[in-house]
Specification:
The protein has 361 residues and is α+β, with helices and mostly antiparallel strands. The longest helix is centred in the middle third of the chain and has 18 residues. The structure holds adenosine-5'-triphosphate (ATP). The site of adenosine-5'-triphosphate has 11 residues, from helix 1.
């Protein structure tokens, strides 16, 4: 088990013209499960491959348990990595594929057999142990590949690169839970790359949200949802994402086209900002708040998505299933002052926002 520390890590694939990974310094604590979450091309795999040693960073250092491993080859880092697509020996049976990493470590025959049975049981591969991977469906092949990554008990960390991409939607959920159980049982440090927020939020203790090569926020699923410190986190996490509106601040009073939206808790804000509030925290209110036109109501069974418009902007509110309003009519919505934010031109949250007492209409 290991602590992984990154110090000023950055990477360019084109000799410094552009950076796939902007400088990042952070510590993955021993025994925790982390998810690297972000859209395609944001640098997740680049970061993972630098940690595993498949890629040498253009700048910075990687430390495992305090030892500088930046120039240490993958084999000597004692890390297991599982890729998006199966990496298996086709000439060997599933059993032999699973045994292989253990035989390399010179484990005894009985210990190897017991561990292979255990992992096969965890992944539901018991009936396939004596088959060749080529004879298995592609999702089962990937599960064998997962097994190869999980089979060694002496690894410092396990790195997963979108391991469930080719797995059937229903089985994905089961597998994710089994991986989580395995993590809790072994306490090995895990770094899990995904672009799927549900996967990240349900699997990891801590989620690192990345965008355009930079780490924009890290925290628990709850903190990313309740306190998005960067506009990208508001937009990318949550379904639907945050509502945004350009606002002007004058002594912390926020207006949009002259209409008062709210007051920032931070004193002395002046200039251009963006106001953001998640659909969950736009609250129907009898008279106070902003008056919107109700464009459409989507009934999602356990909640409703209320599509609202006002002048030149649109918001979505996520209400209780019992919410009723006339489509085409007017409805007032206020917002939770702990859960509405104002973002600066660098997209960083600078303050929470309280609704205007006079309603701003
Ligand atoms: P995905 O989810 O699509 O794999 P990602 O978040 O893992 O995306 P990376 O694969 O790390 O992102 O890619 C980050 C950036 O680096 C992208 O712009 C990508 O095109 C570029 N890139 C990745 N690998 C190489 C390479 N070998 N040579 C040149 N550019 C690369």
């Amino acid at each position: 088990m290991a602590e992984i520390r990154l110090e000023g890590l950055a990477h360019s694939y084109d000799g410094g013209k552009t950076f796939a990974l902007n400088p990042i310094s952070m510590t993955f604590e021993d025994g925790k499960a982390y998810a690297l979450l972000g859209p395609s091309g944001c640098g997740k795999t680049t970061l993972l491959n630098i940690i595993s040693g498949l890629l040498k960073p253009s700048h910075g250092k990687v430390f495992i348990d305090g030892k500088d491993v930046t120039n240490v080859i993958t084999d000597d880092r004692n890390i297991a990595q599982v890729f998006q697509f199966p990496v298996l020996y086709d000439t060997m049976t599933v059993r032999k594929n699973l045994e292989f990493p253990l035989k390399n470590r010179k484990l005894g025959k009985e210990a190897i057999a017991a561990r292979v049975e255990e992992i096969a049981g965890l992944l539901g591969l018991e009936d396939d142990l004596d088959r060749k991977p080529a004879k298995l469906r592609s999702d089962l092949q990937q599960i064998v590949s997962l097994g190869r990554g999980l089979v060694r008990e002496d690894v410092s960390a396990i790195l997963f690169d979108e391991p469930l991409t080719v797995i059937d939607q229903n089985f994905k959920w089961t597998l994710r839970n089994r991986l989580k159980r395995l993590h809790l049982a072994t306490g090995v440090t895990v770094v899990y790359v995904t672009h799927d927020q549900t996967e990240a939020l349900t699997f990891a203790d801590e989620v690192l949200v990345m965008n355009k090569g930079s780490l924009v926020q890290d925290g628990t699923a709850e903190s990313l949802f309740l306190e998005p410190q960067h506009e990208f986190v508001g937009y990318f996490i949550g379904s639907p994402g945050m509502n945004f509106l350009d606002v002007e601040a004058k002594s912390s009073i926020l207006t949009h086209n002259g209409m008062e939206i709210g007051k920032a808790a931070k004193e002395g804000l002046n200039g251009s900002y963006r106001f953001g509030v998640r659909p969950e925290f736009l609250i129907p209110s009898a008279k106070s708040g902003l008056e919107f036109k109700v464009d459409r109501i989507e009934d999602r069974g356990v909640f409703k998505l209320v599509h609202l418009s006002k002048d030149d902007f649109k918001f979505i509110a996520k209400t209780e299933e019992s919410y009723e309003a006339q489509v085409g009519g007017k409805a007032n919505f206020s917002f939770d002052s702990e859960r509405a934010f104002v973002y600066d031109t660098n997209q960083k949250a600078v303050s929470t926002v309280s609704p205007s007492s006079e309603g701003g209409n």
